[in-house]
């Protein structure tokens, strides 16, 4: 239990990095603003939070996951019982921690947290909801109806608090190691870290924590042309994927460095001059925050939110959206390579990208959470 002068906050954002990273960025900001604060992360045993949360030094409490079935099957009929059990476990965490506020970031961890906090007879807790995507998910739509404050990364997400006409626009919380990154100052060390040359352009390629097959195939298929143009490549292909690189790729003055996963994204951003990536909300937030020009290739399935995530940055001139079906090796040769070799254009795109980001979002969300908790 928290002491009489200590605030206790639960952050709920488990499952994927897109939910966990904003939650941890806000937790870091809360700790900076209020050093005595008690912070607890809510998660499930099968999410990335089991690794990421302890690494960042926060207490993790696990509850049963409540994934939403996408079709009528046996899981759909089991859903009410699973929700009730998860809510019951969450209420225990709320009571044990003496929570003053819950801040949720969507996903199947947030829904039980919202229900437990909003409908508890013994310990009702105010809720702050943050929506990172251009289209709100089911959990945050439910949470918004119970929330004291509703925050969003971009306009048009479709959620708002009960007494507000729209959500408050704050951007996406990004960790300070990214928002405070001076790419030019770290460039030399970052390139040395990955075995990249100090001179010449570097292309960063990543498709999220699991990689992206279409990105992998298109870029590796253009490896010879990239090398011939003097462009080095740093490519995170995903832990379960293998790149089919042509013989000799990676040799010479413009190497092709392929790795399963990038644990130091700050160094990857510092080493690069341009990125090719998906356009998940967190990816767009980080890439724009560091002022890195990008070719965004949205996921070809889902509700189209990835393209919507990238549109504000692209509208500012900080990147280009490419449909997955059009992103081929030929596209890289015809469009990406000429863009990379145009240094002035890249500088203009980098400035535009940085101008489109919200570098202070984590602190802004943390200030709102503290305000709600104190009331």
SSE layout and pairings?
Layout (H helix, E strand, L loop, with lengths): L7 E5 L4 H17 L4 E6 L5 H7 L3 E4 L11 H24 L3 E4 L5 H10 L7 E5 L6 H9 L2 E4 L15 E2 L6 H4 L3 H12 L7 E5 L6 H9 L1 H6 L3 E5 L19 E4 L5 H7 L2 E4 L3 H9 L4 E3 L8 H11 L3 E3 L7 H13 L1 H14 L4 H14 L1
Parallel strand pairs: 1-2, 1-4, 2-3, 4-5, 5-6, 6-7, 8-9, 8-11, 9-10, 11-12, 12-13
Helix pairs in contact: 1-15, 3-4, 4-5, 7-10, 8-13
Keywords:
single chain, 375 residues, alpha/beta, Rossmann fold, seven-stranded parallel sheet, six-stranded parallel sheet, elongated
Shape: elongated
The CATH class label of the largest domain is Alpha Beta
pLDDT averaged residue by residue? 89
Gap from first CA to last CA: 19 Å
Query: Helical percent range?
Result: 40-55%
CATH superfamily of the largest domain: Glycogen Phosphorylase B
Strand residues, percent: 5-15%
Kindly report the spatial arrangement of strands forming the biggest sheet: 3-2-1-4-5-6-7
- Radius of gyration over C-alpha positions, nearest whole angstrom: 21 Å
Would you identify the CATH architecture of the largest domain?
A: 3-Layer(aba) Sandwich
Give start-end ranges of low-pLDDT stretches: none
Secondary-structure-based class equals alpha/beta
Supply the number of structural domains. 2
Number of helices: 15
The biggest beta sheet reads: 7 strands, parallel
Quantity of strands, as a count: 13
CATH level-3 fold name of the largest domain: Rossmann fold
